[in-house]
Amino acid sequence: MPASGPVVECTGILSIWNDMDVGHEDFYERWYMHEHFPERLGVPGFRRGRRYEAVEADRQYFTFYELDGPDVLFSEAYLARLDAPTAWTQRIMPALKGMVRTVCERLERKGRALGGYVVAARWDVPVTPPAGIVDRVREGLADPCVVAVDVWRAWGRQNAATQESRTRGAPDRAITAALVVETTRLPSAARALELLPGTLGDLPAPSVIGLYRLIAIQDSEA
């Protein structure tokens, strides 16, 4: 794990949840770690990618990229990648199922450590996370193993269908907002999964909450 903390100055997030057909696991790992991560993190404005695997969640995988800003996802360099998928990408895309993919802006993050577990709450109904929600969640959980809380909101613009997305066979779903709690220990993550809804005040209940463990982190070399 990198010695430095999260790239907190980044205001853009690309959030992705997905399942995968059984039997493709080995190739999926090879594609992600040896081609897809380096490819994406070679795009100007991509700073860090993180991958997680479900412990208790509705999707098998949760991935997000930290970006200089949401507009990075509409840059010529990035769109060129989406419209010219590699042979490996074309091979794996049909195996990805239940894709939930959203261009987000980071509203607030507190905590510089990277936890080995995350509890990710996402909304698919209109919601505006209020100022101060991060402190409210941290105080409500009151756990020293909670090392960071991150809040995102869907950006006003989302990517149109691309050659890459068409190979998945079904349209991507999107979120309206997300709140991610990072912990150092699994019991604390399990506790956060249970208690998080009660810390959200007047916000509507999340559409989905999942618990994930960290698989990999990779930083841009730029």
Brief overview:
With 222 residues, the chain is α+β, with helices and mostly antiparallel strands. Helices cover 24% and strands 35% of the residues. Strands 1-3-2-8-5-7-6-4 form an eight-stranded antiparallel barrel.
- What's the average pLDDT? 94
> What general outline do the C-alpha atoms trace?
globular
Instruction: Work out the strand percent.
Output: 25-35%
CATH fold title: Alpha-Beta Plaits
Count of helix runs: 6
Distance between the termini: 18 Å
Strand order of the largest sheet: 1-3-2-8-5-7-6-4
Which radius of gyration do the C-alpha atoms yield? 17 Å
Count of individual beta strands: 8
The CATH architecture term is 2-Layer Sandwich
CATH class: Alpha Beta
- Going by helix content, strand content and strand pairing, the class is alpha+beta
What order do the SSEs take from the amino end to the carboxyl end, as H and E? EHEEHHEEHEHEHE
* Contiguous runs where pLDDT drops below 50 for at least 5 residues: 1-8
The major beta sheet can be summarized as:
8 strands, antiparallel, barrel
Number of domains: 1
